[in-house]
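sanity check this:
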Amino acid sequence: MDVKTAFFYVFAFIMLFAAFRVITARNPVHAVLFLMLAFSQAAGIWLLLKAEFLAITLVLVYLGAVMVLFLFVVMMLDIHIDSLRQGFWRHFPLALAVGAVISLEMAVVLFGGFRTGEAPMVPETVTNAAGQVVQYSNTKALGSLLYTKYLYPLEIAAVILLVAMVTAIALTLRERKDSKKINPADQVRARASDRLTIVKLAPTQAPVPAEPAPAAATEEVKK
């Protein structure tokens, strides 16, 4: 076993352990942290396969943005763990059956595509369309493959992500009775007269005459 194979087994073991802890952790913050660990190990495997662009993209996009956003959202939300776990064992057989079906389908697809043999060698230089010898770039090769052979699957995935984004915005902007919101259109149409009322008062007022004291009280003061 060479060093590369040893690193692969180490990254794969840690990634599988982190993925298992994601679905078994009782604390949602711990689950998000284990998910970040799984993504980091996946990035290490991409580096072993000499796919540096995918590894850096995985670290920057998922670890640097998405997972940190998830972590802040989970920490700010008031999540009741006990209410989430109610009915877990009642739905566990159905969840187990669905997970088994998905695992079998993935195994059929993955093992059907695996072929024993040596790993493909990445060339250091290639010849471009003009006949010039240039340095090989896996980023350029990935972009050419995505926008030529896999163009239609890429466009379908983009449409699905767009629909998901629009749906998330629509769910966020729905009317809720338990939240206070301000309509920006009402703020723009607001005028000074709607916010402030000026009342005119006289500059001076005549003093109010004092009432005369009773006679009995005056005699007592004199005594």
In short: The chain has ten helices and two strands.
